[in-house]
Design a protein that fits this description.
alpha/beta; TIM Barrel; Lyase, Ornithine Decarboxylase, Chain A, domain 1; 2 domains; 8-stranded parallel beta sheet; 24% strand; binds pyridoxal-5'-phosphate
Length: 373
């Protein structure tokens, strides 16, 4: 459900997502497209369809229900649920829609094995290992117990073994990637020695671009880079992400343009005072549109190719920007994300002003009504 009744439009370039996929797939291995959370705000079904056309045959969603919603659109592709079964009803959906769930503990495994045995079907699963995130997963020391229990679960077929990197996008922390990669390698080797045949999967986008030569394993999970964000922007490895193209822009409309005399303040709390006579445009976007109040006095928009800074507090549905010297009028289009030329606003820019990461910007801007171009 998009945010209703506003003037924002989030425009998605599906051809850019396809181009980014091809670039990542060109680095080798099997690439699962991570389209969890409504494809990071770009649209679950639309993104899955265009990637299928680009040759992608495996997708990773978040919840099991998200995978069930996807199944009809891509009847043959592999669908992995990264969250796995959280509630008992998820197990029925896993079997009913042939979803491969990430399984992170013994309780989940036994429940699913029991249900699959009763239904006389196989359950294909991805075993999730914690090699350094300390979030979800079995640990290396669980391997013997896991192998023992799997012997009594003929209905379970281990299709994948996965783990997630904590620092793949931080060149200062590549040593920790190596620690996780080596641990994961030992786990895969031990499971294979016991006769299991599966795809190993460790790398996310940053992992694919920086670590696949050593720790690529068979299958990689590409998320943020598919949507055109370079995970290494601003680091000394920036060139690794060259050539990715942004797939989202968000526009809205100018509501009013007026003069503000030197000494007058703008918006709630009087947090901005004009130091000179200026011209201000009031724009139809605010925190109810996922345009965070954290951007108050910090962010900028792009108007006719020029950066225009936010002045004063972001309100619920309105935000003021300094448009001094730029011709504009009510009804004009203004970019919250994207825009023309070198002053276009990137997801990294917004994230920096907002104090977050581009992932959050895409997920939240994607809650607005979308258009596909
Ligand atoms: C979201 C997610 C990914 C994708 O990560 P990106 O950094 O967006 O490429 C990969 N694996 C898991 C387990 C995830 O949750």
């Amino acid at each position: 459900m998009p945010i209703a009744h506003n003037y924002l439009r989030t425009r998605v370039r599906l051809d850019h997502i396809a181009a980014n996929y091809k670039r990542l797939a060109g680095l080798g291995g099997r690439v699962l497209a991570v389209i969890k959370a409504d494809a990071y705000g770009h649209g679950l079904l639309e993104t899955a369809r265009v990637l299928t056309g680009a040759g992608c045959d495996g997708f990773a969603v978040g919840s099991v229900a998200e995978g069930a919603a996807l199944r009809a659109a891509i009847p043959r592709a592999a669908i992995v649920s990264l969250l796995g079964p959280v509630l008992p009803e998820d197990d029925a959906m896993i079997l009913g829609h042939s979803i491969i769930p990430f399984i992170h503990d013994f309780g989940q495994l036994e429940r699913l094995a029991g249900r699959a045995a009763r239904k006389r079907v196989k359950a294909r699963v991805a075993l999730k290992f914690d090699t350094g995130m300390a979030r979800l997963g079995f640990v290396e020391a669980d391997v013997p117990e896991l192998l023992k229990r799997l012997e009594d679960m003929p209905a379970i077929e281990v299709a994948m073994v996965g783990s997630h990197l904590a620092t793949a996008d931080d060149p200062a922390a590549f040593a920790f990637v190596a620690e996780q990669g080596e641990g994961f390698g030992r786990i895969c080797a031990a499971l294979r020695r016991a006769g299991l045949a599966f795809e190993g999967s460790l790398c996310n986008s940053a992992g694919i671009m920086a670590h696949a030569d050593r720790f690529g394993f068979e299958t990689r999970r590409a998320g943020i880079a598919l949507y055109g964000v370079n995970p290494f922007l601003g680091t000394d490895r920036e060139t690794l992400g060259q050539g990715l193209v942004a797939a989202m822009e968000t526009v809205t409309r100018i509501v009013s343009v007026h003069d503000v005399a030197a000494g007058r303040s703008v918006s709630y709390g009087r947090t901005f005072t004009a130091e000179r006579d200026m011209r201000v445009a009031v724009v139809a976007a605010g925190y109810a549109d996922a345009y965070s109040r954290g951007l108050s006095n910090a962010g900028a928009m792009c108007l006719a190719g020029k950066r225009v800074p936010i002045v004063g507090r972001v309100c619920m549905q309105l935000t003021a920007v300094d448009v001094t010297g730029i011709a504009c009028a009510p009804g004009d289009v203004i970019h919250l994300l994207g825009g023309q030329g070198p002053e276009a606003v990137t997801a990294n820019d917004v994230a920096g002003w907002w104090g977050t990461i581009p992932y959050e910007v895409l997920c939240l801007f994607g809650l607005n009504p979308r258009e596909y171009v």
